[in-house]
Amino acid sequence: MNEMGKSLKRIPVLFENDFCLVLDKPPGLAVQGGEGVKVSLDSILSESHSPRPLLVHRLDRDTSGIILVAKTKEAAHRFSGLFAGKALKKNTMLIKQYLGLCLGCPEPKQGVIRLNLDVRGRERKAETSYRVVSAGSAENDSGEFPLALLELELGTGRMHQIRRHLASTGHPLLGDDKYGDFSLNKKLRKTHALKRLLLHASRLVIPPLPELPAGLDISAPLPDYFSNFGSLLQTNL
Questions:
Q1: Could you tell me the residue range of the domain that residue 53 belongs to?
Q2: Does one domain contain both 80 and 57?
Q3: Which residues pair with 201 in a beta bridge?
Q4: How many C-beta atoms lie closer than 10 Å to residue 171's C-beta?
């Protein structure tokens, strides 16, 4: 078996029918190929499935969790519209939820971050909703510091949106090596074996569609490396 075939076996399948495939993407796997990318989810699917499944949305390389790919051009068109925020008819908006561990605890504990983001030199509107699921603290060599587990939803889909929005409010995600608290991340690598971005695409809800007559409500469990901060995860999600 080649490396792509082995890689596919390591990606849990959460749901499959004749029109789509829902996977639990591991962290570190790019969704699409590009400069410096030897293996991507797209190339793995191309090697292992015929006809080639079609990407309809993206996850950051460092973000784990739920990703959906379409099996037909017609399904790809419909799903792409939903992920782009277009209601194909009344009450057909989808829900994409994430879980992330951040530094500090946002106030208020539920709200919406509306902050324009630069996208390829152009300022674009961006909106992220959040809710504090649990709050607590952890210790490192410098003492105790506050943390919060957040449930997040995207109102728009800008690149690195959740990461950039949380960093802008002073509550960066743990393990974020681009927008985060680099000093803290370094300390947590020693004290809590922090090696990954702690952001996970945890739940996807799709309303009834021709490709999904009963709709879809699916969740992906948090990866094992979140358990190093287990005291914050003891909550009914």
A1: 3-94
A2: yes
A3: 65, 98
A4: 22
Residue at 90 is within a domain:
yes
How much is the mean pLDDT over the chain? 89
* Token pair in block for residue 202: 């945890």
CB atoms < 10 A from the CB of 159, how many?
14
Average pLDDT over every residue of 101-111: 95
Instruction: For residue 107, give the 3-state DSSP assignment.
Output: coil
Residue 182 φ then ψ, to 5°: -65, -40
Residue 64 pairs in a beta bridge with 200
Average pLDDT over residues 113-136: 92
| Residue 187 Cα distances to 1, 124, 155, 174, 181, angstroms | 40, 34, 33, 11, 10
Output the pLDDT for position 1: 40
Q: Which two tokens stand for residue 135?
A: 């709050």
Half-sphere exposure for 86 (CA within 13 Å, toward CB): 7
b/e per residue 209-236 (b: at least 16 CB within 10 A): bebbeeebeebbebeebbebbeebbeee
Whole-prediction pTM: 0.91
Residue 211 lies in a domain: no
Which residues are catalytic, by number?
60
Q: Residue 209 pairs with which residues in a beta bridge?
A: 212
Looking up residue 168, the CATH number of its domain turns out to be 3.30.2350.10
Residue with tokens 């939803």: 153
Q: What angle do CA 55, 57, 63 make, to 5 degrees?
A: 110
Residues 81 and 123 in one domain: no
User: Taking a C-beta distance cutoff of 8 angstroms, is the pair 206, 81 a contact?
Assistant: no
Q: What is the pLDDT of residue 88?
A: 56
